[in-house]
């Protein structure tokens, strides 16, 4: 313990004085601290005191003389002006311990200090920490630590007690004062007490049970949580998945296939089926040994003769299938790429699915042989690719769901190259595909921009129009004209933002979603009003949607490990899902985002809230950033890998909760986005960004997997205490083989005779807060950056 006051210390040793003077003058910049962590309470009630400490590895001048520790302090300062409401003035940390063998140093306030007083008025997440190193009387101006920590792992001033089952406490406005008020309704209870709409609450997973407490008598529609065989018989379903993809009724005997949940004799299948497939290449069954650079095939899923009878691994929905057959007979592996688009070439309307199977229409193991929402071609169109050895194959063309928009005429764009896979990643529509062919061709009057792979007019003709419907256009008031110039600009002083798609200036209400402030007084009709994360007023009894990620029962069965070769021009690189190109080892998984609230969840609309979206030229659609975040920690809670999911099409993918208030049919899709209560939005592990890069971490050991939804708090919901789920996951060593099938998680455990998983220990270094809230978090990074100048704090409102 070191409690000397700096002004009582003897003069600084000459060696230190020289180094400090040079650091102040900017003559040397040394990293005196590294491998830091900042530990603080996860939640603090408004107006209550809290404490913190800072750990690091000392890499500065020698500290062999213990008295030198008394010269060191860390000045803890607010970064943003609004942080003045979190604490008053600058605070200091002094050295509390130092280990000379491993150079581990701990800074902490004096025991007599009240370190911080949480804001009484502005609640939210405070995620920027700024420490300046002080030696004796001197602050080292170019040696400070800027911690911009991650969402959901930061200090939060909140009324919440961190529990889910008792409901969300809110900071309610009563007269001119604000108080913390307990929830009026528990999240799993029906407002009217109906047992068929009430559920047991699972505090461990912070969610409601999938079946109501009223039991089997409450069954409104079929459910995987009751006896599946009985339900299948009751609904007269003989086989396959039902329409909502929540009930599986098995397979048919060998001489029959499953179509629309009925077992039918294969002799009744018509052309275009697995038993009577079309030829993919009309001239012969066998693909020429020298390949086929490019050809197209047209089909139509709306025709009555096509039935559902194949189950692609990336989408088991009962949708009509069209099957094509081809054979590979070559001295080298044959590269293949097939894209499926709407017949007019558009990519954003018809939600297509492609699957490459063996001769019996059983799925092939390589993840890239089943495609949904792929780039290229972009949007909701699909793509499969890879290398094939000799054999007979069948290509299945189908759709994500059987809504009319998906059952339309389509076009297949097919390429075969000996020992080469076409590389047209990054939404390239022209230029070289890397195999001697082209990614596409440009129209007359256009030239191909070789770097971007996009067609441009030659000479470039500015276009400041927007087509609102066929043959009807409006002028774009803002955005780009296609030739590098602006069509116009918006008035930022009036909070106007350009809606990229329409080129219209939209006036928006800017909101700091982490530290929200509601303007004006709440409407008198709202009882017990509080300010939501979208800076709008809500009432305590108002029913809301509630997003939560899937727990381990949803995630673990979907985990797969495989090697990929990442192109430096792929969308995954451009949009940050991959940090490096080349050969990378991925841990893939499904992402389920459930709505367990009592109301529909409606995502923002890009045309009305452009500040919450970013246009992705790579995928050719808008991205809503912060929809989901994936992290991997070692068992000591140190972050080792980070990922993230950008929401595009938020829809009812699968029903996961059952009860009288839960719809039995999906309502929302890509054209009408949202999630109903009891339904989940599913992002399969074959999609871009559905992974964590584990190339550079140690393998054959346990890690902690974390998934969070609504990480940026851009969406106001019933509870934020259930936004993250954590559980152990085993990471195996996978030999480098780009053509090997993905290694499934259950096989990883079985091969190693692993039958139990480790328990997650509390995070290290927890501190006891004055308000006795022991829910603490340790925010750590591999290394510390000693910044040369204070980083510009960027607003995350339009990240995608």
From TrEMBL:
Native organism: Brachionus calyciflorus
GO molecular function, a single term: copper ion binding
**InterPro entries the UniProt entry points to:** Lysyl_oxidase (IPR001695)
Q: What protein am I looking at?
A: Uncharacterized protein
| Superkingdom of origin organism | Eukaryota
